[in-house]
Structure formats: C-alpha cells, structure tokens
Design a protein that fits this description.
- The chain contains 16 helices and ten strands.
- The chain is of the alpha/beta class and 365 residues long.
- The protein has three domains: 6-11 and 210-286, no CATH class; 26-206, P-loop containing nucleotide triphosphate hydrolases (Rossmann fold); 291-362, Winged helix-like DNA-binding domain superfamily/Winged helix DNA-binding domain (Arc Repressor Mutant, subunit A).
- The strands form three sheets. Strands 2-5-6-1-7 form a five-stranded parallel β-sheet, with helices on both faces. It has a three-stranded antiparallel β-sheet with strand order 8-10-9.
- This is ATPase.
- It comes from Butyrivibrio proteoclasticus (strain ATCC 51982 / DSM 14932 / B316) (Clostridium proteoclasticum).
- InterPro entries: P-loop_NTPase (IPR027417).
C-alpha cells in the first residue's frame, strides 16, 4: 500500500494534457494518423467532436505527439482565439530547425516583427499569407509535412480567412494538414458556411464512450481492488472520460486516507464524484441547454424514476413534455448532439452521462 501517496495520484482532474492513466482509443487514433501519413490522404482536415469531458483534447495531444515523432513531420498547435495565420507563421519561425532553413534561404519576415531585415533577401514577405507561402515552399523542398492542431475551434471571421488560405495552400500542393476539436454545434456552424471549402470538406469523427472493460482492467491494476469492485467502478463511469479520471482520482485519495481498496465508502465516493462532474463539466453543459431542452430532460427524469430499465420510450417522453411530434424531434436531436442523451435504441432515449440525473436533483433547489 506504500504506492498510495496523494502526490503520486496517477489520475487527474486537470485538462489539456495526457494524464498518466490514459485509455487510448486505438481505432480512432490510428484512423486519423493513417489518413494524414498516407501518400495521398483522403482528408486534409479533420474534426474530433464529443461532449465536454469526453477526452477530445487528450486525443488531439496524443495524435500530435505521435505524428510529431516522425522525422518528416512538423507539428504546430494554435490558440483558436489568436490571429491564426499570423500565429502559424510565428510558431513556425520559432522552431530552431526551421528558422535555420528560413535564414539560409534568405527570407525576410521583418514585416511580421519576426527575424531581422535581411540585406539582399531572396524574398520579402508583405503580410502573413505571403510569409506562410514562403515558409511552406521551404518545407516542401525539405520534404517536410505540416500538421496544425486547434483545440475547441468555433466559427469566426478569422477562422473563415484561415480556411480560405488553407484551400489556397492545398491547391499549391503544399503538405499542410489540420486537426481540430470542437463541440458538435460549433462544428455545424463552421460547416454551414459552405464557402469555407477546406473546413466544409473536413471529416468529423465523434468520440464514443471509453471501453468499460479497459476501464475495469485499469482500476483493478492501479487501485488494487477486486474484479468485482473494479467492475462496479467501471460501470459507474459509463465510459465517460472525465468520470474515469475523477472516480479514479477520488478513490486513490480515499485509499491514501486509510481505507482498504475494497472497503472505500461508495456513498462518499459518489458525493465527491458528483461534485467534480458538476464543477468540471455538467454546470457548463446545463447552462448551454435551452429551456425546452431541459423540459425534455425533466420529463425523462420523471419517467425514469418509475422504470427498472434505463431506456425510456420516446412517445412517453414527448407526451410528458407536452410537445408536438415536430417540436419534440428538434429537441431530441439537440440533446443527442449535446451528448447528454443516447438515442441509439430506436424508439427510446436514455441518459448517456453518468449520474446526470443526480446532478439534475441539485437544480431543484
């Protein structure tokens, strides 16, 4: 039990980096990587989408790291709130290997405030688009490919400008590729702009739940619990990435405080899990729902209380929410897209996120 020290907790409540206990979605990860590294990629742009806390950012970082390990690839991560073209140019110039190549090619980027004015320069950039064309030409001659990653992208005029530039660069046969994450509604807003050819044609990959067996195996090994307790914990997460981390994090700390691995108080654990899910994800998800979305969820919750099954008939929900078929269909689709509700079983809906009904109880007060 000496390994159970709070500062060595391998689970984390932090975002934006790959945690020590990380369950890889191998199939999707390999599909995205293989698309980019093949000689003729099917897609130059790809989106990863999923509900908040589903692990989009972690997968983005994992793929960026894996591709970046290959000698013929350069990776750059951009802040979605920045001037994307200017930020890309500056990030490329800051890579020592590339800076040396740009200087050797006598490229002048002083207009962007990077580098110095070069006497008898071969080319002088007049703006960020010119600078990037010059940089990409150097990368192409060096047989380098460029992967750009952007986390939580949303539509903006700058994103539109960036998309048009990428279409132009792709047309010049530069090896430039883009991998993004975003909520489904934000990706739809981008794809509704059909003039944004590069992003409009980008493939969307939605993250499904983590494999519950993999979670069970992880908990059994890491927390040193019995198979029965590991299964109980794994099913409690419903495969939700944030719940996997939060449950493991709190369970580890309970063992640190003296509980035997199989004797941790599950009611207390549920309370800690609920607090973490609420603070880190559910409050934000709830705030983004419309009043009609919530009306459907309250109807589902009321009906589910009287059922043994997690599945609730669509027609019963519609009647309980007092909506017409057309109106209900709109909000059913919205809730499925939001990741709160599962509609895979024809004619039925169920709550997709773990302990979301318990979270809703707090909204009554």
């Amino acid at each position: 039990m000496s390994k159970f020290v709070e500062i060595k907790n391998p689970y984390t409540l932090q975002f934006s980096y790959i945690p020590p206990q990380f369950i890889e979605r191998t199939l999707i990860t390999n599909e995205i990587i293989n698309n980019f590294i093949r000689d003729i990629p099917t897609y130059r742009g790809m989106f990863i989408t999923g509900v908040r806390g589903s692990g989009k950012t972690v997968m983005l970082g994992d793929i960026r790291n894996k591709i970046g390990e290959q000698d013929d690839w350069i990776t750059v991560d951009l802040n979605p709130e920045s001037n994307l073209l200017d930020s890309l140019a500056r990030n490329l110039y800051l890579i020592p290997q590339l800076k040396t190549m740009f200087v050797k090619a006598k490229l002048d980027f002083s207009v962007l405030g990077i580098g110095v004015s070069i006497e008898r320069a071969s080319l002088i950039a007049s703006n960020e688009e010119d600078a990037l064309k010059m940089m990409l030409d150097v990368l192409k001659k060096a047989k380098k490919k460029l992967l750009i990653t952007i986390d939580e992208i949303t539509y903006s005029k700058d994103v539109a400008k960036f998309s048009h530039a990428l279409s132009s660069y792709a047309g010049m046969d530069y090896d430039i590729y883009l991998l993004m994450t975003g909520l489904k509604e934000n990706i739809k807003a981008i794809k509704n702009q059909k003039s944004l050819t590069f992003l409009y044609r980008a493939k969307v990959t939605e993250l499904e739940a983590l494999n519950v067996t993999a979670i069970c195996n992880d908990y059994q090994k890491t927390l040193e619990v019995s198979r029965e307790r590991a299964e109980q914990l794994a099913f409690k997460t419903k495969g939700y990435s944030l719940a996997f981390q939060a449950l493991g994090y709190h369970y580890w700390n309970e063992i640190c405080r003296g509980s035997k691995p199989d004797d941790v108080d599950m009611k207390h654990l549920d309370s800690e899990l609920d607090e973490s899910l609420s603070e880190l994800s559910y409050d934000k998800i709830w705030d983004e729902l419309s009043e009609s979305d919530k009306k459907v969820l309250w109807a589902m919750k009321k009906l589910h209380t009287n059922l043994d099954s997690a599945l609730i008939k669509v027609e019963d929900i519609r009647k309980a929410a007092a909506m017409t078929s057309n109106t209900f269909t709109t909000y059913r689709t919205r809730l499925i897209d939001s990741g709160v509700v599962d509609g895979k079983q024809h004619g039925y809906l169920s709550f997709k996120l773990p302990r979301f009904e318990e979270f809703m109880n707090l909204k009554l007060y």
